[in-house]
Amino acid sequence: MVTGIKSEEARELAAMYRSQLSDIMEEWAKHTVDPTGGYITDFGEDWELVSRRKNIWAQARQTYMFAAYYEYSGHEDKWLSLAKLGRDFLVHHAYAGEGRWYYEVSEDGERVIEGTTTIFTDLFALIALAQYASSSGDQTDYVLIRETFDCARNHIMDPEFRDIKPHVWQKGIERHSPYMIAVHSSMIAEKVLGKDVTGPFIDFCIHKLLYFFGKNESGYLLESLKEDGSVWDTPEGRIVNPGHIFEGMWFCIDYARGTDDAVISSALSIIQDTAEAAVDRTHGGVIHRFDCYGKEGEDTVRTDTGELKADDKVDWVNCESLYALALAAVLTENETSIDQFRQLHQFCQTHFKPEDGGDWYPVLDREGTPLRKNKGGKHRVAFHVPRALMNLSELFETVS
């Protein structure tokens, strides 16, 4: 492959990302196993235990990553065994029936703390079970995977479906994130269910992302729009979330590579437009959010990661951005895209990666100083950062 990133640089990047991925996965493997079932995920700065809560987003994401890493690392049994711990906990304790999944259960899984409040739990459970089935070759969960996929697809296509936490359903408003997460979840499910089952739904979701949310008068792909495609001119409706945009666009590109140049072209255009506005040219890194019209919004918002200012730098935002910009650099060979990738790579290596290695700091201030150093959390596990490092190492191995 001819590219502005030469073979030697690509080899160095692939080796660096592979090594850092290994460190993070080994770190999590050492601390996360709960002898009572599933994973412990809520840790402080030095892996001290904060709580033993069993949030199903976290359980499912960790299951997916262990199963994916099993394939990536050459089928070492250790990683499949770790993935099975999560798979077993999910199947035996988190399934509500009829394709729906609980949001949180008690430590032992015997008591439901919060029920089927969000479509995202269903989608994360889908990637966990589908990746485990694909990696292991065990088709025991085929019917459960199909039920979960069918249920999620039907609910996402239903404008009256209201279980979209952390969003609040409002009539006449469409949300970007269910379609975005559905693309990736359905791509993983396709390994088990086949393209005939998942393909039409993925195409529907990608069309929504690129040609509904990505084509409006603001010029940005927005988190929400009115159902007629116009901007919902409120502080919430004007939010641009760069992390979700970059993540969604690499989902689209990965699905379309080799089959649909028009999708790739549209996604690359959105990546470039977003990068122009979201990359901090003074301090580096990608900011958490901004207003599409430049209006004043809330200075601080509360999330599951804690309170975040608009110009804070968040780990998942920057690692998803890093892979999207790497794809843009490799696919376009454009010097601007290559420079954007290299600059973000340097920022992440300098500021997010601790000097002694291991998982990234979760949140930095605008200048790049860590605001929090916790290892895990309610939703934070080995997921966004290691998935990005895995994708990056595979991409640059191909280039080299």
TrEMBL record:
Belongs to the N-acylglucosamine 2-epimerase family. One of its GO terms (molecular function) is isomerase activity. The keyword Membrane does not apply. InterPro entries: 6-hairpin_glycosidase_sf (IPR008928), 6hp_glycosidase-like_sf (IPR012341), AGE/CE (IPR010819). GO terms for biological process: carbohydrate metabolic process. Keywords: Isomerase. SUPFAM superfamilies: Six-hairpin glycosidases. This is N-acylglucosamine 2-epimerase.
